[in-house]
Write a sequence for this structure.
């Protein structure tokens, strides 16, 4: 499945960078053996995770609450105390570990992007600016000992050499320790036609079937699963060394469900491809028609996902005047690729007139629409790009 030429999704640009962009051919594929849905060619990791990494997890209050809840659950379930050791892989600005650090529990956050690591450090979180793999795991083990809990949220889909990560987890985790991962779900991506989940940083979209296959190779198994609606639908996997935990009925029934809906068959993805090509045509066509009628169109939220929508659907600054976002690292910059739409502080949204607003951060719909209630009252219309094009 080809998406054409794509820039790095999170590489929001200054004006003088317009002509210095890196493009790659974005193609997705599915493996019949390990059931993994993934990109075929992936740009070098340093191109994506560096000192300019734009995504700051703490921009959403819903996400802050979500990770706070997870920390409480882990502390209780694993009976963590000040002698315990928690490692997070992909710790970003410390949104999760802040809650662990507050309880004076030993911890270490590992993140490949220097800027977000510095933010976490400034919040008092022990952080290591590095890529996590078997080498890093051995170093951590030597310095701090093995971990009681390893957490990795919205990160397992980011790392090309995922086998080295899982080997590293296996090396670092205590025999009775637990690993918790949480990532966008393939089942939900298909259900919601959320093709914007696919971009270089999201090189794998995991399912229970593909995750199980991966961890089994290293003597581990998924013993429980929870699904939630965040980031467009995520699955949280609870993993332990083989035969250490009882496999929950949720795992067994989700395995059966994944087979029933064809997550193990190439034909399922061919149908998905057809649906998203139709969606692309519809979005471009409605925006072009509105523009011809001199309507003012803006966007709300410049997630990495918007880079896929804008570039796949060939939408640029001629159709969308500006996009509002609350992330300090994005404000004042432009969306990457050929779209080149200015990003403005979402505080200005209330005072800026527009007729239509494309909600690129559709996964935060509840939070954003309740924050911006005035827009509908002033007859502004929201355009929701997935699962079906909807104007509300
Ligand atoms: P995400 O879907 O990857 O979490 O990205 C959501 C984007 O939307 C991110 O750039 C921040 C932005 N955003 C706002 O501008 N205002 C908000 O209220 C929320 C929740 C997100």
């Amino acid at each position: 499945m080809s998406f054409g030429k794509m820039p790095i999704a999170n590489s929001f640009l200054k004006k003088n960078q317009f002509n210095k962009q890196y493009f790659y051919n974005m193609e997705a594929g599915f493996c019949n053996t390990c059931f993994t849905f993934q990109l075929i060619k992936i740009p070098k990791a340093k191109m994506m995770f560096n000192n300019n990494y734009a995504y700051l997890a703490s921009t959403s209050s819903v996400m802050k609450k979500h990770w706070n809840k997870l920390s409480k659950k882990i502390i209780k379930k694993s009976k963590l105390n000040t002698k315990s050791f928690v490692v997070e892989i992909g710790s970003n600005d410390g949104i999760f570990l802040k809650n662990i650090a507050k309880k004076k529990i030993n911890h270490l956050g590992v993140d490949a992007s220097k800027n977000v690591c510095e933010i976490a450090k400034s919040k008092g979180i022990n952080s290591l600016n590095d890529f996590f793999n078997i080498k890093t795991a051995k170093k951590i083990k030597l310095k701090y000992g093995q971990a009681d809990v390893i957490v990795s949220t919205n990160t397992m889909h980011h790392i090309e050499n995922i086998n080295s990560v899982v080997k590293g987890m296996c090396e670092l985790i205590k025999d009775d320790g637990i690993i918790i991962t949480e990532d966008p779900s393939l089942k939900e991506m298909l259900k919601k036609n959320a093709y914007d989940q696919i971009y270089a940083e999201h090189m794998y979209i995991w399912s229970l079937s593909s995750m199980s296959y991966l961890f089994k190779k290293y003597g581990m198994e998924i013993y429980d699963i929870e699904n939630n609606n965040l980031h467009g639908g995520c699955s949280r996997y609870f993993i332990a060394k083989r035969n250490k935990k009882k496999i929950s009925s949720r795992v067994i029934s989700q395995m059966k469900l994944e087979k029933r809906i064809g997550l193990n068959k190439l034909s399922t993805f061919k149908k998905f491809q057809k649906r998203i090509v139709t969606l692309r045509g519809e979005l471009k066509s409605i925006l072009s028609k509105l523009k011809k009628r001199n309507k003012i169109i803006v966007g709300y939220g410049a997630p990495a996902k918007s880079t896929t929508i804008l570039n796949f659907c060939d939408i640029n600054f001629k159709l969308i005047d500006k996009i509002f976002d609350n992330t300090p690292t994005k404000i004042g910059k432009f969306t990457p690729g050929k779209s080149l739409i200015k990003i403005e502080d979402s505080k200005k949204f209330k005072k800026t007139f527009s007729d239509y607003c494309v909600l690129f951060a559709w996964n935060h719909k509840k939070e954003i629409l309740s924050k911006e209630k005035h827009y509908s009252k002033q007859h502004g219309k929201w355009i929701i790009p997935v699962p079906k094009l909807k104007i509300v």
About this structure: Residues 59-60, 231, 301-303, 325-327, 330, 346, 361, 363-364, 367-368, 371 surround thymidine-5'-phosphate (CB under 6 Å). Residues 33-261 form a domain with the Rossmann fold fold (CATH 3.40.50.150).
